[in-house]
Structure formats: structure tokens, C-alpha cells
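Key result, reporting period 2: structure in, sequence out.
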């Protein structure tokens, strides 16, 4: 491919120059009107493929019939076609390999599950209860490794008598999960400035509104709201509606300096809630931008909002990537839409962060529940929200 820049007084003049030099198959990549010393001119960038670089070649083709001009365009595109065909073969090959890889992983997981079950069943007459628990945990989305660990703990640390009754066994398992989750609830200091981060659509704005209502009407606190989610069309509208209904002040922040100013202006507020835009965590600049923004104020509580209907591995990856901003807590949303609560255990365990709230519906403010390790362990093991009012 040969690329060349042209200057001309008009587009027509430029086109003529390009056609003359690069031939009829040249492609115009850009054209701009610019100001020069001698007035305005058009800058045009044009390209042509190498296979028709020689002028004599072009002139030969020009001289021949229209049949040859078709041949010429074939000549131009031939190398691209070959490359496209090779790429197609490569993509199909990669896809096939990915499918096989996927199937192999699934097969390995099934085999491991089977071996785990066999291992559990070797152990005396409580084995059928233990393997039932193991199977239950896997079916509610707890990872195979965690399910196995819990069952091993049951097997090794409890007496035959403890393990004889299935419901009793389940209760003990719930206790193991509760104690494990509780280890992440140490040294908690509630902060005045509270932010919400997480993927797009995970429920940041809705959860912020639910909490604002709780602080305002329940705790009678003075609230201010800030949002950095200002560049998506309609993003601030949703929050403005909530703020207006509750009569709360809302400030939009576009730059880091405005963030500092707004925090100062809300200096008298009991609580400041900060909404942020959601983007894919694969966008490194987005996470770095958030990290940079939070350097403005040393004590900002950062809540990672995770939609529990997402797949477990995906949530773990999100929790890992957002680790860059050193979030304090996790809030799980959309429990009303989820089939399995098991991943909650794995994510808390992976992230090592406490969970103080879960949300279970779109209604603001009611679909929010305050939770602790006990309630979470019950939710996970029973895999249902039925005992909504029980808190711990
Ligand atoms: N079913 C259900 N929907 C929710 C919940 N929380 C938020 N949503 C919905 O999820 C969508 C995205 O929520 P939004 O707060 O705008 O997400 P954001 O992009 O993270 O700010 C909206 O339609 C919300 O109503 C929840 O707990 N359950
Ligand atoms: Mg939002």
C-alpha cells in the first residue's frame, strides 16, 4: 500500500492530481480544508495498492478495454482476498480449539466432582449425607474446591453423632460458612463519604438511591449526592429524579478539581454519596481514572456493586480487576433474579471483603436489606431469600 499527501485549491483539483498520479483505483483516506500562508487549501491523503504502483502498468491498463479495468480491481484486491481467506481459516481453527478446550474443562470438572464424591463415600455410614451436602453446594453455585473443603471440615472435625442427621449437618455447614465470612468483618469504620463502583448496569445508581432514602428517612441524616457519571446520555437524569423526589442536592463532577470543591461545599453534610459511571473493567483507563479520582479525599468508602445474576468466574474477575481501587465492601444486587446464591460465598472468600447490604428488586427504597455473616450464610445454604426479616 502506498500512501501520499496532496495539496490542492479544491477537491476536484486534488482528485485530478490523485487520479493522474495514483491511478483510478486510488482510495481517498481523508480530506481536510486547512489554512496556509497563501490562503486556504485542501489537504487530501490518498492510497493505492502496491500491485499497481508502476505508472507504465497503469497506463497500459488505462489504454485497454473496460474488461481490463475489472482485472485491475481484481489485481488490487487479490492480496486482501487471500489474507481474508487465511484469516477465516485461522478463526475457524481457533474456534474449534476453544470449543474443545471448553468441553475438556467441563469433562475435567465432572470427573473431579465424581472423584470427590467417591472420596467422600468411602467414609463410613455418614458418607451419603456428606455427598448429598457436597452435591447441594455444587448445584447452588459454590465452587467444587470450596464444597469439598467444607465437607472435609465436617468429616474431620465433627463426631459421627453430629453427622448422622442431614439437617443438622446442613446447619453445621452453615456455621462453617458463617465463621469463614465473619473473618472479613474486622476493623470496620463507617465513613462519611460513600462511593459506588462497579460494572455498567450492576445497580450502582439504584442502590445509591435506596441507601440515600434509608439515611434520610430512617436515620434522619443530612445527605448530599455527587455523580461523576456525566458523559453518558441520560445517566444523570435517573439520579436527578431520585434526588428531586427526596429533595436532596445533587452535584455533577466532570473534573478532579470539581470533585474536591464539591466535597468542600458539602462539608456540613452527615453523608455524601457518590455515583460513578460503569464501564467494562477491561478498560484499564477507566479503572485508573477512578483510582486517580479517589486520591482527592483520603477517606472515601468504596462499595463494589456486583450483580449476582452474572456468572461466578466473571464476578471473581470483576472483583479482581476492581482491586486496583482497593474497595472496602461488596454489595450484591438482583438477588430477586438469581437462581444461585452459592457464588456469594466464593466471591467474599476471594475478595476478602465484607457485605453489609444486598438488594432484591427494583423498588426504591424498599428492596434493600442490611446483612451480616449469619444472614449471608443462611441465604447461601438455603439458596432462598424467604426469611427476609432475619438480620445478623
Ligand atoms: N431485579 C432487580 N433489578 C435491579 C436491582 N438493582 C438495580 N436493578 C435494575 O438494574 C438496572 C440497572 O441499574 P442501575 O442502578 O441503573 O445500574 P448502574 O448502571 O450500575 O448505575 C435498572 O433497570 C435497575 O432498576 C435489583 O436488586 N433487582
Ligand atoms: Mg448508574
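The corresponding designed sequence is given below.
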Amino acid at each position: 500500500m502506498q500512501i501520499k499527501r496532496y495539496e490542492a485549491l479544491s477537491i476536484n483539483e486534488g482528485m485530478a492530481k490523485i487520479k493522474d498520479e495514483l491511478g483510478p483505483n486510488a482510495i481517498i483516506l481523508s480530506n481536510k480544508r486547512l489554512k496556509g500562508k497563501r490562503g486556504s487549501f485542501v489537504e487530501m491523503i490518498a492510497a493505492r495498492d502496491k500491485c499497481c504502483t508502476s505508472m507504465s502498468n497503469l497506463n497500459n491498463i488505462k489504454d485497454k478495454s473496460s474488461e481490463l479495468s475489472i482485472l485491475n480491481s481484481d489485481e488490487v484486491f487479490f492480496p486482501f482476498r487471500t489474507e481474508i481467506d487465511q484469516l477465516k481459516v485461522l478463526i475457524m481453527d481457533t474456534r474449534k480449539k476453544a470449543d474443545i478446550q471448553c468441553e475438556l474443562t467441563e469433562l475435567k470438572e465432572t470427573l473431579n466432582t465424581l472423584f470427590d464424591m467417591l472420596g467422600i463415600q468411602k467414609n463410613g455410614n455418614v458418607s451419603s449425607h456428606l455427598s448429598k451436602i457436597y452435591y447441594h453446594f455444587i448445584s447452588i453455585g459454590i465452587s467444587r474446591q470450596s464444597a469439598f473443603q467444607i465437607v472435609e471440615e465436617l468429616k474431620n472435625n465433627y463426631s459421627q453423632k453430629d453427622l448422622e442427621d442431614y439437617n443438622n449437618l446442613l446447619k453445621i455447614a452453615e456455621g462453617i460458612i458463617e465463621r469463614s465470612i465473619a473473618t472479613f468483618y474486622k476493623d470496620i469504620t463507617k465513613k462519611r463519604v460513600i462511593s459506588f463502583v462497579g460494572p455498567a448496569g450492576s445497580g450502582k445508581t439504584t442502590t445509591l438511591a435506596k441507601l440515600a432514602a434509608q439515611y434520610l428517612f430512617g436515620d434522619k441524616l443530612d445527605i448530599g449526592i455527587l455523580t461523576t457519571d456525566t458523559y453518558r446520555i441520560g445517566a444523570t437524569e435517573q439520579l436527578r429524579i431520585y434526588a428531586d423526589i427526596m429533595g436532596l442536592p445533587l452535584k455533577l463532577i466532570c473534573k478532579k478539581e470539581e470533585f474536591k470543591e464539591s466535597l468542600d461545599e458539602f462539608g456540613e453534610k452527615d453523608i455524601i454519596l457518590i455515583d460513578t459511571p460503569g464501564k467494562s473493567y477491561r478498560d484499564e483507563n477507566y479503572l485508573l481514572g477512578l483510582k486517580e479520582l479517589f486520591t482527592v479525599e483520603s477517606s472515601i468508602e468504596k462499595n463494589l456493586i456486583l450483580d449476582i445474576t452474572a456468572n461466578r468466574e466473571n464476578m471473581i474477575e470483576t472483583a479482581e480487576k476492581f482491586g486496583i481501587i482497593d474497595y472496602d465492601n461488596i454489595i450484591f444486587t438482583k438477588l430477586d433474579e438469581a437462581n444461585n446464591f452459592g457464588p456469594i460465598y466464593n466471591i467474599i472468600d476471594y475478595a476478602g471483603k465484607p457485605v453489609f447490604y444486598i438488594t432484591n428488586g427494583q423498588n426504591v427504597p424498599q428492596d434493600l436489606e442490611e446483612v451480616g455473616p449469619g444472614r449471608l450464610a443462611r441465604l447461601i445454604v438455603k439458596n432462598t431469600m424467604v426469611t427476609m426479616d432475619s438480620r445478623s
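The pocket of guanosine-5'-diphosphate (ligand 1) is lined by residues 198, 200-206, 278, 305, 333-334, 336-337, 359-362, 367 (CB under 6 Å). The first strand starts at residue 2 and ends at 8. This case is discussed further under Risks and Mitigation.
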